[in-house]
């Protein structure tokens, strides 16, 4: 069993019914085991007007990846159960995600070892009257600028990041 994991520190943009909020330093972990991928966004929170609403952990597993153009793409479209987060700033009962039951999500993620771009659509119209879009972009902390692994930090790294974003 071959297992590999990459942790990305990400910028998150959340749009709820056309109202946007942004967050930095959100961790997304991608693991690969025998050709299937798992993606985890831990301690997901919605932030609106300075108020933080803890949602929980969004995770998908066993998703087939397609390797093309130098990056891997995964697509997932199915209901999931959101689990409670473990952020010490919140009590276990504060996390609202576990109360929602099956949550329909559509996820598309593109990544290389050093950068990740993902989009999660959460359609909660029937339950909450909301459509939630989560856009994620981040880099692996060990990156230090060398996105394309050529042992140099230069414009080619910027181009690699732009290619991932445009492919999204």
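^ Assign residues to that structure.
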């Amino acid at each position: 069993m071959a297992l590999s994991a990459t942790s990305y520190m990400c910028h998150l943009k959340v749009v709820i019914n056309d109202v946007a909020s942004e967050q930095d330093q959100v961790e997304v972990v991608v693991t690969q085991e025998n050709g299937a991928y798992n993606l985890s966004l831990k301690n997901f929170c919605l932030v609106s007007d300075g108020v933080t609403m803890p949602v929980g952990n969004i995770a998908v597993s066993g998703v087939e990846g397609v390797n093309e153009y130098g990056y891997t793409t995964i697509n997932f479209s199915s209901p999931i159960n959101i689990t409670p987060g473990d952020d010490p700033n919140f009590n276990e009962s504060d996390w609202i995600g576990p109360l929602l039951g099956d949550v329909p999500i559509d996820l598309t993620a593109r990544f290389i070892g050093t950068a990740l771009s993902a989009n999660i659509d959460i359609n909660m119209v029937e339950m909450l009257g909301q459509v939630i879009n989560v856009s994620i972009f981040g880099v692996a902390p060990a990156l230090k600028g060398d996105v394309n692994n050529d042992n140099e930090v230069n414009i080619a790294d910027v181009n690699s990041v732009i290619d991932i974003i445009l492919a999204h």
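The beta strands are 3-16, 19-33, 36-48, 51-68, 71-81, 102-111, 115-124, 130-139.
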